[in-house]
User: What shape does this take?
Amino acid sequence: MLSGPFIPRDWMGACETFEQADWVLVGLPYDGTTSFRPGTRFGPEAIRSASWGLETYSPLQDADLSHTSYFDAGELEFPLGNRDAILSMIRDNARQVVQANKRWLGLGGEHLVTFPVIEAYVEKYPDLAVLHFDAHADLRDDYLGEKLSHATVLRRVVDLIGPESLVQLGIRSGPQEEFAWMRKHGTLLEKRENLPQALARLQGRPVFLTIDLDVLDPSIMSGTGTPEPGGMSFSEFVAWLMEFRGLNFVGADVVELSPHYDPSGVSTVVAAKVVREVMLLGSLQSDNMKQVATTSSATV
Ligand code: MN
Ligand code: MN
Assistant: This one.
């Protein structure tokens, strides 16, 4: 054995085994249905690399990742070009994580990778609700004739859970029909005063959190395939996240980082920090949390 010291390239030096871990991080390097600029297949590796520059402690949540347990499984090796085989692989792996009572944390990849995960989750949690951050509704029934695309992924999720089990934030781009659909079904949380109605959809139920990073403004998230001006600042984003503290988050994913469009690397750092905050948010409800944060002094 070489004496090193060597730096493992896992997420923040993840050292728990699958059996020990509460969170299981899985890289999903797929960008096969990307409608505009490809490149999200490079997202998971970039996020892991950037995680080494982060602190494990979040002042915002007064919680520390060292009190959680996580296993980084690495990246699934996909037969790129075979969408259906890839979705099947993701579903099989998510099923193993869910059935082992662990939380899936998918690192995208494009947003379509969320669908097979939700398929696995509803097998175990028929009353699953989904909390969705995105610039786009992803509610088209098909995109250029394709039913399975990153532009249709939430519509496919709704086919499984029903519109009454979905809450969406940050949506600011799409055809009029999508906005009409969201208003008809009450899925879009547009103003803070409507937060109680959104929470009513989520409380007391298992919740999956899916974050498309293009919900953030391109000024801090240019590294994504479909940037949309007018998005949230990082502070606004985490303030929204904190509104959902205490929910029973059973899994999550962070998708659509396309790191090469942002040579400064800022988008990748932002993505890694989003992953940290998501893990901590979910862990506050966890039986496996080694030590739960005691105060909530967050101000943003
Ligand atoms: Mn999007
Ligand atoms: Mn999306």
In short: The pocket of manganese (II) ion (ligand 1) is lined by residues 134-136, 212, 214, 226, 256 (CB under 6 Å).
